[in-house]
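Project outcomes to date are best conveyed with an example. Our students and postdoctoral researchers have been running inverse folding experiments weekly, and each run begins with a structure described purely in C-alpha cells. The record below, which covers 465 residues, was selected by the lab manager from last quarter's runs and is presented without edits.
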C-alpha cells in the first residue's frame, strides 16, 4: 500500500517561546539543519561517485564525522538516496522527452518536405493547369501577411531545423553530463521503523507531543531531547495509525517550520462492490466531465455531465477539481460501484506539442488534467472506492458510432459509457450498419476493425470528439 503524508505548521505557543521569540524545537532545528545538510551533501557525493555503496560502513562514518547516532545517520542516508534517485529518474525522463521531441520534429520535417517536393513536381509540368487530380499543396498568397503559403512553410521548416539542432545538442549533453543534486537548506529528515516505539526511534509522537532525540554534537546546548506540542493532524478522514512506521520531515518554508509525517495508512472499509455488478465510467474533456453508470448487463442506467472550467487561477482551479471529485465519490457510493477512467500518459503526448495544433497543445499543457487524476485517486482511496484504469484506445470512436445515437448522449457521455464497459471487460463489436464500410475479419481482434474505422473517419474529416 502506498504511503500518505500529512503536513502542518509547527505550532509556537507563547508558553514555549524564549526571550528571542523562538521555541526550543525551532532553536534545535535551526542548529541541527546545517549539520544535517553537510552530512547529506557528503552522502550524495559518495552515492554518485562510488560504484558500490556500503550503507553500514557509511553509517559508521557519518556517526564519527558528525557526532550523530545511528538513527540520525539513517535519516541522512535515506534523504540523500531519495534525492539521488529522484534526480536520476528526472534525468531519464528528460532524455526520453527530448528524444520524443526530436523524433516528432523529424517526422514533421519529413512530411512537409515531401509535400513541397510533390507540389514542386506538380507545378513543373507544362500542362499542370489541365491536371484532373490537382495539387496536394496548391500555391496561394495571403493578402494579410503578403507572402505565399510556400514561403510560410519554408519559414516554418527553417525554425523547426533550428529547434531540432538545439534539442539534439541538449540531448547529447544530458547523456554525458554527470547528475547534479541540489540539497536545500533548513531540512531535517528522521526516518522511522515499525519495530521502534511509536514508529520512530528518535522522533516519537504520542498524538500530541513530538519528542526528538538530540544528536551528541548538540547535547551540550539542548540536552538529551527536545519536545514540542504539535497536536493532531486534523483530517475529515484521518488514516494516521497509532502504531506503525512514521517518518518525520521537518523543513522551513516561508520563514516558518513545517512538520510532515509519512506513514502507511489505515485501510478503509470498501464502499464499492466488484466491477462485474456495474461501473461508472468518466471521460475528461476541456469543458466538462461526462459520466455514465452501467449495470451488470452492460446497459446504460443513468448518465450526466459535471462542468470543469479550464484556465482558472490555481486556487480556484484546485477547489473546482476537488468539488468535482467529491461529486464523483458521492455517485460511486450511491451506486456502490467502482469508477473507471482512461489510463492516460500525457508525457508521450506532450513530446508532440510543438507539432500539434494550438487547441490540442493548450489542452494537454493544462495543469488541471494531471491534478484532476491525482485528486481523484486520493479522494476515492480515502473513501474505499476502487479506481480502475483502462486502455483508452478507440473509446471516443466507439462512443461516437455505437452509443451516441442509440441513447441520445453527448460525446463525452458516450465515451464514458464505452470506458465503463471496458472496465467491466465487455467487448465492443462494430454495429451492423458500419461493417459495410469496414472490412471485417473474424480471425483478428475487434480493435483492428475499430482502428480501420478510426482511420477512415480521420480521412473523411469527421471529428470524433
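After processing, the design step wrote out the following sequence:
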Amino acid at each position: 500500500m502506498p504511503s500518505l503524508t500529512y503536513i502542518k505548521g509547527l505550532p509556537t505557543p507563547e508558553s514555549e517561546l524564549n526571550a528571542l521569540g523562538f521555541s526550543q524545537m525551532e532553536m534545535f532545528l535551526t542548529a541541527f539543519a546545517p549539520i544535517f545538510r553537510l552530512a547529506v551533501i557528503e552522502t550524495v557525493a559518495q552515492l554518485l561517485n562510488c560504484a558500490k555503496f556500503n550503507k553500514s560502513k557509511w553509517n559508521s562514518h557519518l556517526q564519527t564525522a558528525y557526532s550523530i547516532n545511528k538513527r540520525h545517520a539513517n535519516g541522512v542516508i535515506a534523504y540523500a538516496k531519495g534525492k539521488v534517485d529522484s534526480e536520476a529518474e528526472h534525468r531519464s525522463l528528460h532524455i526520453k522527452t527530448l528524444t520524443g521531441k526530436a523524433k516528432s520534429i523529424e517526422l514533421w520535417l519529413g512530411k512537409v518536405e515531401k509535400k513541397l517536393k510533390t507540389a514542386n513536381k506538380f507545378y513543373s509540368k507544362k500542362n499542370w493547369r489541365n491536371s484532373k487530380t490537382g495539387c496536394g499543396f496548391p500555391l496561394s498568397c495571403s493578402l494579410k501577411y503578403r507572402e505565399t503559403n510556400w514561403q510560410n512553410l519554408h519559414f516554418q521548416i527553417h525554425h523547426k531545423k533550428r529547434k531540432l539542432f538545439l534539442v539534439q545538442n541538449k540531448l547529447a549533453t544530458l547523456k554525458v553530463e554527470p547528475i547534479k543534486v541540489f540539497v536545500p537548506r533548513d531540512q531535517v529528515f528522521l526516518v522511522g521503523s515499525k519495530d521502534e516505539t511509536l514508529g520512530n526511534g528518535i522522533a516519537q509522537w504520542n498524538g500530541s507531543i513530538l519528542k526528538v532525540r538530540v544528536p551528541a554534537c548538540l547535547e551540550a546546548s539542548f540536552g538529551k531531547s527536545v519536545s514540542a506540542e504539535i497536536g493532531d493532524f486534523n483530517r475529515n478522514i484521518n488514516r494516521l495509525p497509532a502504531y506503525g512506521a512514521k517518518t518525520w520531515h521537518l523543513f522551513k518554508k516561508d520563514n516558518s517550520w513545517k512538520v510532515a509525517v509519512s506513514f502507511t495508512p489505515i485501510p478503509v472499509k470498501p464502499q464499492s462492490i466488484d466491477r462485474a455488478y456495474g461501473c461508472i465510467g468518466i471521460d475528461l474533456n476541456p469543458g466538462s466531465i461526462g459520466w455514465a453508470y452501467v449495470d451488470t448487463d452492460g446497459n446504460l442506467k443513468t448518465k450526466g455531465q459535471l462542468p470543469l472550467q479550464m484556465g482558472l487561477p490555481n486556487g480556484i482551479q484546485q477547489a473546482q477539481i476537488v468539488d468535482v471529485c467529491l461529486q464523483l465519490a458521492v455517485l460511486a457510493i450511491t451506486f456502490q460501484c467502482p469508477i473507471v477512467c482512461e489510463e492516460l500518459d500525457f508525457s508521450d503526448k506532450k513530446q508532440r506539442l510543438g507539432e500539434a495544433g494550438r487547441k490540442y497543445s493548450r489542452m494537454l499543457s493544462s495543469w488541471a488534467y494531471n491534478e484532476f487524476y491525482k485528486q481523484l485517486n486520493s479522494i476515492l482511496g480515502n473513501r474505499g472506492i476502487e479506481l480502475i484504469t483502462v486502455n483508452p484506445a478507440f473509446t471516443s470512436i466507439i462512443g461516437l458510432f455505437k452509443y451516441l445515437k442509440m441513447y441520445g448522449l453527448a460525446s463525452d457521455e458516450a465515451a464514458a459509457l464505452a470506458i465503463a464497459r471496458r472496465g467491466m471487460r465487455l467487448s465492443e463489436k462494430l454495429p451492423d450498419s458500419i461493417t459495410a464500410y469496414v472490412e471485417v475479419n473474424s480471425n483478428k481482434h475487434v480493435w483492428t476493425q475499430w482502428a480501420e474505422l478510426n482511420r477512415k473517419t480521420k480521412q473523411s474529416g469527421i471529428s470524433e470528439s
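DSSP finds twelve helices and 14 strands in the chain. The first helix runs from residue 24 to 49. The training component of this project remains on track.
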